[in-house]
Amino acid sequence: VQLVESGGGLVQPGGSLRLSCAASGFTFSSYAMSWFRQVPGKERELVARITSGGGTTNYADSVKGRFTISRDNFKRTVSLQMNSLKGEDTAVYYCGAIKMSRYGSGQYDYWGQGTQVTVSS
Questions:
Q1: Which residues, 6 or more positions from 31, have their beta carbon under 8 angstroms from its beta carbon?
Q2: pLDDT of residue 19
């Protein structure tokens, strides 16, 4: 099983980045997918999540209207489009997979290694 994030980097405030997470080794279409972020000394924060079929998405209040999560079950990828980035969006971003049968439990089955996003002028 692998989740491999990509697309992180350094961007100026107000800029955009698109993160991608490529999945392998499990039945991707049976899993909800989420993006989390974490800064040193703080707990991992749920940023956005999407159900297995892509029909329902949820966002943290701090990113609503700026971030969009999407998935392609054929390509086995989940993406996070991040617009109007702010300094407080700086974090390591992780993708996580949770089986739909446990969607509300918060008990994720698989995690990626993370990708750094730094928003700074």
A1: 23, 52, 97, 98, 99, 100, 109, 110
A2: 98
| Tokens (6 digits) for 82 | 């991040």
Bridge partners for 77 per DSSP: 22, 72
Q: Which of 78, 84, 118 is nearest to 98 (CA)?
A: 78
pLDDT at position 98 is 97
- The span from the CA of 104 to the CA of 91, in Å, is 24
Report how far apart, in Å, the C-alpha atoms of 79 and of each of 12, 101, 118 are: 20, 22, 18
Task: List average pLDDT for each run of 10 residues in the chain, which is 121 residues long.
Answer: 97 98 97 97 96 96 98 98 98 97 90 98 95
Contact status, residue 49 vs residue 33, Cβ threshold 8 Å: yes
Query: Nearest CA to 21 among 61, 49, 40?
Result: 49
Tell me if 100 sits within 8 A of 36, measured CB to CB. no
| 96 close to 71: Cβ distance less than 8 angstroms | no
Per-residue model confidence (pLDDT) at position 115: 98
